[in-house]
Specification:
The radius of gyration is 18 Å and the shape is globular. The termini are close together. The protein has 13 helices and no strands. Helix content is 80%, strand content 0%. The chain has helices at 3-29, 31-53, 61-87, 90-97, 100-110, 118-133, 138-142, 151-175, 179-198, 210-233, 236-243, 246-258, 264-281. By secondary structure, it is an all-alpha fold. It has one domain (3-281).
Length: 282
């Protein structure tokens, strides 16, 4: 198994676990507070780790400006996704939003000139299908009314997130695997802090969910660094579909610890993902 795929799996597990923990915190503290403070923790951890491990924070103004733009894109993707969940149906918004990986794939191939063998393309298709299938319950979709509500937010998430991860890949190629994550997290956090007064959001620290927020922050750092290392070592067109399958981890954890039942389409999605990873690993 290549390093790129190993890092992709690490990012998938970290993001899936973070999403599971964040969901519990969001139910207690609300979306914005959970998102903001987990990003603050991620930013502090990233900057501290970079200073200790590398020490040199020198970055050109142009690179800093590019990283800032990418960081803003990342936060916009988060906000679009959560806004979609607020006004629409989870069973509709989540699977549409999961299609961001298709945009990343198209950019990787059409813009960055990455190419896949027939076998790799088959593995990627299985991984993408698995990522989308595990993100929702088909039975919920069939019983949902007013399916169109919030869909424009989901589509916005697809486009913005797809461009975000492709841009992070491009930054990694120019700035290394660590510094882009530091810059993206810093600018993302600053964007949230700037948005708070505009959106009339509270900045109070969620003391009742300290452990959950800390864990989410740590796992987010691990996930982003793993993704960055993955695309630094391998094509993003192969690493991104594996990372995008993180809902599978969330679903498995929800079944194990919350007693939630896994739908047939989710089981099929997990099977497709496993087959895709096996194909990509050979």
């Amino acid at each position: 198994m290549s390093l790129g795929i190993m890092f992709g799996l690490m990012a998938m597990v970290s993001w899936g676990t973070a999403d599971f923990i964040a969901t519990q915190a969001i139910r207690r503290e609300g979306t914005f507070n959970t998102l903001l403070w987990s990003h603050v923790i991620s930013m502090v951890l990233c900057i501290s780790a970079y200073i200790v491990m590398v020490g040199d924070m020198t970055v050109t103004p142009v690179s800093l400006l590019k990283a800032g733009g990418v960081g803003v894109l990342g936060i916009l993707a988060y906000l679009m996704f959560y806004r979609g969940l607020e006004v629409g149906e989870t069973s509709v918004i989540t699977p549409i939003s999961a299609c961001w990986v298709i945009v990343t794939l198209l950019i990787s191939i059409l813009v960055f000139g990455q190419s896949l063998t027939t076998v790799q393309a088959a593995g990627v298709c299985l991984a993408v299908a698995g990522a989308i299938a595990t993100s929702f319950r088909l039975s919920d979709l069939s019983s949902t009314r007013r399916l169109a509500r919030g869909v424009h937010y989901a589509v916005s998430t697809v486009v913005i997130a797809g461009i975000f991860y492709s841009s992070l890949d491009a930054l990694t190629g120019r700035m290394g695997w660590f510094l882009p994550v530091v810059c993206v997290k810093a600018f993302g956090t600053l964007t949230l802090l700037a948005y708070a007064p505009i959106g009339k959001r509270s900045l109070s620290f969620p003391r009742s969910s300290v452990t959950s927020i800390l864990l989410v922050g740590v796992l987010e750092v691990i996930a982003y660094l793993a993704f960055s290392c993955g695309v630094y070592a391998h094509y993003s067109s192969i690493v991104a579909p594996i990372c995008a399958a993180f809902p599978m981890v969330t679903v498995v954890l929800s079944q194990r610890f919350l007693g939630e039942r896994m739908a047939t389409n989710q089981k099929a999605g997990i099977a497709a993902l496993v087959c895709g990873v096996i194909i990509l690993s050979t």
